[in-house]
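Notes, Module 5: Reading structure tokens.

Key idea: the token line is not a picture. It is a compressed description, and you learn to read it the same way you learned to read a sequence, by spotting repeated patterns. We will look at two proteins. The first is printed below with its tokens.
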Amino acid sequence: MKYTTYLFIILFSLFVTLGFSKRTRKFLHMSQLEGYEAKEYLKWLKNNLDTAFNLKSAAKPVKKPLVMTERANRLFRCNFLINVILLAAFASSIHLIFNSIPISTFSFLAFSFIFYYLQPITIYLSTAIMNPYEVHINRGYYLQAQNKIMNRKDLTVIGITGSFGKTSTKFTVATILSEKYKVLNTPESYNTPMGLSKVINNELKDDDQVFVAEMGAKKIGEIRELAELAKPKIGIITSIGPVHIETFKNIDNIMKTKYELIEELPTDGIAIFNYDNEYVRKLADKTFKEKILYGIELKDKVDIYVDDIEISEKGSSFTLKHKDGRSIRCTTKLLGKHNIYNILAGVAAALAMGLNFEEIKEGIAKIEPVEHRLNLIDSPTGVIIIDDAFNSNPEGTKAALEVISQFKEGKKFIITPGMIELGEMEDRYNKEFGANIGKVCDYAILVGEKRTKPIYEGLKESNFKEDHIFVVNSLDEATKIIGNLAKLKDVVLFENDLPDTYTE
């Protein structure tokens, strides 16, 4: 009987281990999405208690799946060890107290279920415990990358930051500069110290002449850390607005953080500013390093601007002009006026790097749309789909609506869960978003009843037809509605797609 009980416990332990593994990965995924920051993960946990502790919650498709990196594996093993130690400690204590195999067996089973249920909490503990060790490891990678950059006197580094437009501008800069140089840029949204360190350590080659680095931040000091790593000679600030306002608290802190890039430029560095943005303009005006200003609205105050803009559903054309009198007609596949700002940033960087207008024109024509950022998707049904699902901000939503307003045929649909991370201003901006939708779209499909309430209010105030507003719980429900309503030449805009950490 004794050995049968032990065998049962061993087999049950194996079963529990498999079950723990699946549940642990769910919360390991959330920790990874929160950058392995224990405080951020805890905030997510507090905001999603029902989801975290609901054992019957239905699995939903993930937008950014768990990647079992070396760090993720270390965290997984640490969490497993914590569970084993705690389970063994509690079960042994019961056995010592009662010295009864039935009671010990029952307590083991009970504690196994309890710890299975508490995986959201043990992952938090594991993340907090592993943090000092991970900081030490990351510091090593950071210093290795920093030394590699410092030893490359022949390499020009271009740093790009801003509240929005960073990624699109990065690819634009890299594409134009590739007309003359061998360019490496950070992929996708790699814009953290570890992201840059990984690219520098693993991908930067001896024959690379230019490194274009996107630099993101959620709090003061993070851009400076990135600039100290990459040592940029050219710095670009694309925009400043109320993005990540929950962590920055106010626009002034965002301005200070973005300006860290300019402060870290060498004395012979070049600062590039979007002069049309009111907050960036303030930073440009106080800068005494060499600078290049670009814009569309304030033509008489900038170095580079455009005239005669023609925007259509196929792209844009414009006349690129320099204050010294040079000009050239350019075309691009990119949709929307806001992308012309990104192109102007690329032009400014290209001029700083010695390209002529003909080379720049050729580079502009080769720029490809960035995935999930206002790019057209071919549809076999003849419905025009515009994917702007990567992220949303107040300026971006206006740009997206401006783009679909260029389509003259068919009805216009929008599918959106609204904007996030705008702090106390979130409801106001989403309500304004709703009002703007009402001026352009024929149908609005809102994903998430609670989240989209301000958008709904904005739509109603704009006298939008109530029977043309649909509130759904998922993207699948939204696409079914589109399937029933959308016809040939209708336009469907997917505006924003909430990260996996967000639920109703």
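Here is the second protein, with the sequence above and the tokens below, as before.
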Amino acid sequence: MARAECDAQDVLKRVDEPLSGLQQRCGGDIPGVIAIPELLELVRKARSYGFRLARAIAAQDGVEAVTAWVEVEPQENGQCEILVRHWQAIPLVAEDASAADLRRTAIDRHLAELTARLDSAQRVLAVDCESAELSAAAQSMAAGLGRPWTEFLPPESVTHKQPLHWRLLDGTRVVVAGSERPWRVSLVPQLQPGFEPGGFELLLVSDVPASETVGTVPVAEHFARRSLVGQDLAPVLRQPIARIIANAETIRTRLAGPLPDAYAEYAGEIAGAGKLLLGLLEDLADLEAVEADSFSTAPDRIDLSEVARQAAGILNVRAQEKGICVEAPHPAEELPTIAEFRRVLQILLNLIGNAIRYSPECSQIWIRLASEGGRARVTVADQGPGLAAEDQSRVFEKFERLGRNGDGGSGLGLYISQRLARAMGGDLSVESAPGQGARFTLELPLDRPAG
């Protein structure tokens, strides 16, 4: 069907259609280095082995998926003759817009250097930030809880009265005092079908990497001065690892252009390994924090029911991927509690995340509230494999994974969660039996009305 020739530097010198069109649609030139990944790999192998190779190659040009049978014959001086024996092109199915939006949100979560929880009116409820560059902005937001986020991160070139509708602010560029990097805000709504968003997750993202310093100290010098564990290591490595994950996800989902399935799978493996490493860093940082003699929480008056609903909403997409229904407390339910909002949310995300991870597909998870004797309780119950009696105390031990392998866990989540619960004057316990699921109960001090 087509012939082509390339030199020892993999530059196509002569090429017939339809191969020439695919070369150009994949970003290459004629003459130019072979831009079709699987063809380039085949040419280099044939040259290295010194004999003819023939195989099917696959490529995508953004419009069609192409499969071709190609033979490569190495010549003198490293040149290769390329023969295309068969060619099949199938139109690509248009990607679902909602699926693309979910992937972009996942990438922004990995890149975000500051996150905040907002209520339905876009008022700040909580802030999480470990970037020294954004510490001033984070402190201002933490000191101004209950005020619109736009007071702390003013949108560029927007003069209308704030806050605008969230769809108009999603993706907008914002001004961050003390930072020279460009920043944008991603607003992730917590939606329920048929209702307006009950709240938002705010992600502050810059497409320009942070400078390779920790404050005014170069990274290498920072490593030489400080121990490489927990809170020392995590802030330094979190951003570069998150950027690796985001770039790999961009490649895997083909947001940056067409790519053969095999290469997309490689990128998926890179992203998966990066997520495991990032999760381990986060766990090590939390482990060091909760075991420090100076560790304490910042108790406040919170609604345990609302925190449970927010945690369920954050993990709802992950649950839906397995067909799992998470039954959160009804919006009319309230349970006033004395605890630190951020730490309670962290515990519930861990409990619900574990329930999703170990529950069978198309099962159900229940989140129930109760109060008794000055204690507020929230229980996360699942239909998973359950725990034997001898395992129910071991599950809260450090690095304990009960023989599970390959599930991506570090064995620290429940240990840290129980330490956090006890630091807030409460506790975390489990009731279970093999084959009957598990019920993890977080107990905290009840906020009694004055009088």
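Summary for the second protein:
- The CA atoms of residues 309 and 354 lie 16 Å apart.
- The two ends are 89 Å apart (CA to CA).
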